[in-house]
Amino acid sequence: MLKLPSITAARGPAALHDRTTFAPGMARSQISCLRSTRAANVHPQTAFTSGAMAPRMRTSTTLAPTRRSIQPLTCRASLTEAAPGKTVLGFVGIGIMGLAMTRNLLKAGYEVVVWNRNPDKCKPLADEGAKVASTPREVAAAATYTFAMLSDPEAALEVATRPDGVAAGLAPGKGYVDVSTVDAATSRAVAAAVRGAGAAFLEAPVSGSKGPAEQGKLIFLTAGDQALFTAVSAPLDVMGKAKFFLGQEGAGANMKLVVNMVMGSMMTSFAEGLALADKVGLRQQDVIEVVGLGAIAAPMFALKGPSMAARSYGPAFPLKHQQKDMRLALALGDEVAQPLPMAAAANSLYIAARRQGLGDADFSAVMEAVAAQQQQQQ
Ligand SMILES: NC(=O)C1=CN([C@@H]2O[C@H](COP(=O)(O)OP(=O)(O)OC[C@H]3O[C@@H](n4cnc5c(N)ncnc54)[C@H](OP(=O)(O)O)[C@@H]3O)[C@@H](O)[C@H]2O)C=CC1
Ligand SMILES: O=CC(=O)O
């Protein structure tokens, strides 16, 4: 009989939720040591032999370090914990999400230096007290910790590595937190550029859209240098309601793609349901109500249903970004030979919607691709 691997053995790095960060009494110097072990590609747990010093992380079989991977610790610049009035933060990428997130940092009392490719988008933040830089390098040079919220892998890599990019302004003691949704390979390339400058790197894609960004209720899916996770905990808490530390960079990116792949498929399925209901003479409003009362109730259906029924798609999460996430999730599935037929079907609807010119509309506009297919078949 074919023996399947156990789920535990197949799992990636253990998750560390914000409620279980470090063992009590762990000194900052130990936190910075964690960063350098990460840079040396050694799991932080290998750095601590005493139970009192070990960070509280759940372990899994895949994390068990081999003796060969244990290397001496070289503590470089330590990271100070960010606090309002004390730490200058940077933010590059002032789009839908970046604007709302930066606003919350300003409201919490942080000094924030911002940059956006189209500088006009920085104006509202300048009115609210942000300083505007003319290059990403200037932001990273002025700030201790710089956040980035950029549209896709190409933008994330470009802003980090171009000659006047973020990496050029980084130095030991600083950190870069990329909250864009990208693939693991891009995240690792950005991490290499950041660490090449002697700084720390954290990937921290977010779950939650424009509304949660405005309300400071995002969910951060982080991975990378754990010392930076700790150092930016306070600003993450200003912008979000939960944060997870998932291990080495790539794990946060993969988690985000899994979640958004499910979300993207749910949305196309919901759009098809609304279209079918309409076709058979049911009121879409009734469908939304019935769905909302049962086991498949979801905040997303409750939030987007009424505007979808009205065929109105003001952008909270641009459809072009959802299609990018489907594309990246499918590529991830390809990489590990995991068939994803539902996601592939959903992706073709998002592509069709982009062809209809709906890339900048909300992703719920995939409804129009469903409607167009219906018409083609009549
Ligand atoms: N909106 C949402 O609900 C959510 C979005 N995300 C993710 O967050 C990221 C940003 O999303 P969102 O804010 O909605 O998107 P927007 O399209 O509103 O913003 C994209 C940002 O990226 C910048 N950008 C794009 N290309 C480049 C480039 N080559 N060089 C420099 N800057 C560039 C844009 O600059 P410019 O203004 O000059 O074009 C803009 O600041 C995406 O990865 C998305 O998948 C994650 C969770 C929720
Ligand atoms: O990435 C989008 C979201 O809503 O999360």
TrEMBL record:
GO cellular component labels: cytoplasm
One Pfam family it belongs to: NAD_binding_2
Record domain 3-hydroxyisobutyrate dehydrogenase-like NAD-binding: where: 250-368
Keywords of the record: NAD, NADP, Oxidoreductase, Stress response
Gene Ontology molecular-function annotations: glyoxylate reductase (NADPH) activity; NAD binding; NADP binding
Domain 6-phosphogluconate dehydrogenase NADP-binding: 89-245
Catalytic activity: 4-hydroxybutanoate + NADP(+) = succinate semialdehyde + NADPH + H(+); glycolate + NADP(+) = glyoxylate + NADPH + H(+)
Family: Belongs to the HIBADH-related family. NP60 subfamily.
Function: Catalyzes the NADPH-dependent reduction of glyoxylate to glycolate as well as succinic semialdehyde (SSA) to gamma-hydroxybutyrate in vitro. May function in redox homeostasis and play a role in oxidative stress tolerance by detoxifying glyoxylate and SSA generated in glycolate metabolism and GABA metabolism, respectively.
UniProt protein name: Uncharacterized protein
Organism: Astrephomene gubernaculifera
